[in-house]
Write a structure and sequence with these properties.
By secondary structure, the protein is an alpha/beta fold. It contains four helices and five strands. A five-stranded mixed beta sheet has the order 2-1-5-3-4.
Length: 186
C-alpha cells in the first residue's frame, strides 16, 4: 500500500457572518427621525406664536394700494363767515394703563407652584388674578398675551413681573383678561 500524504482536515464550517444587532441600526435611525420631527414641531409652534403679531400689524396698517384719482383729489375749502376756534393750549394725554384688567397665570414648564408664585407677585403689584393653572403648548419664553386694545396694560404687567415679551392674544385665550404664560423657572 502506498502511503498517502496525510489529509488536512477539511473544515466545512464557515465562519458565521457578523451581523450587527438590530437595535444598533434601528435605534439611531429612529432617533434621527424623531429629532427631525421634534425640530419641525418647534418651528411650527414658534410660527403659530408669532403669526397673531404679524396679522395684527397687517390689519393695523391696512393693505397697501395706490390711491385712485378720486381719493387723491383735494377737497375744496369751504368759505365760512364764522370765526374759527382758537387752538387749545391744553396738552392731549394718552390714556394711561391701569391695573383694572384681570390676569390669568399659566405654568408651561411644570415647576410646582411657579404659577402661584408669579400670581402672588401680580397681586402684590395691584392686579386682580383669576386663573392660575398649567399650560400646554410651546411658548418660547415668558410672555404676556393681551386682548385687543390692551397693549398698554400688558406692558405695565410685563414691567411689574419682569416679562419683556408681549403678544396679541391667540384664539384660545381670553378676550377680556391678560394671559401670562411662564416658560422659564424665573
Amino acid at each position: 500500500m502506498e502511503e498517502q500524504p496525510p489529509l488536512e482536515p477539511r473544515d466545512d464550517r464557515r465562519e458565521p457572518e457578523r451581523r450587527r444587532p438590530w437595535h444598533v441600526v434601528v435605534l439611531p435611525a429612529v432617533w434621527l427621525i424623531l429629532g427631525a420631527l421634534g425640530g419641525w414641531a418647534i418651528i411650527e409652534v414658534v410660527r403659530e406664536d408669532e403669526a397673531p403679531a404679524q396679522s395684527a400689524q397687517r390689519t393695523s396698517t391696512g393693505p397697501t394700494s395706490k390711491p385712485t384719482k378720486k381719493a387723491s383729489a383735494k377737497p375744496k375749502p369751504k368759505k365760512t363767515t364764522e370765526p374759527t376756534a382758537e387752538p387749545t393750549t391744553e396738552p392731549t394725554t394718552e390714556p394711561t394703563a391701569t391695573r383694572s384688567i384681570g390676569v390669568s397665570v399659566y405654568n408651561q414648564i411644570g415647576i410646582g407652584g411657579l404659577a402661584a408664585r408669579v400670581a402672588g407677585q401680580a397681586r402684590a403689584a395691584g392686579w386682580t388674578v383669576g386663573a392660575v393653572a398649567d399650560w400646554r403648548g410651546g411658548v418660547p419664553q415668558d410672555t404676556v398675551y393681551y386682548p385687543a386694545g390692551r397693549q398698554a396694560e400688558a406692558a405695565l404687567l410685563g414691567s411689574d413681573l419682569g416679562i419683556v415679551r408681549l403678544m396679541p392674544a391667540t384664539g384660545n385665550m381670553s378676550t377680556s383678561n391678560l394671559t401670562v404664560v411662564l416658560a422659564s423657572p424665573r
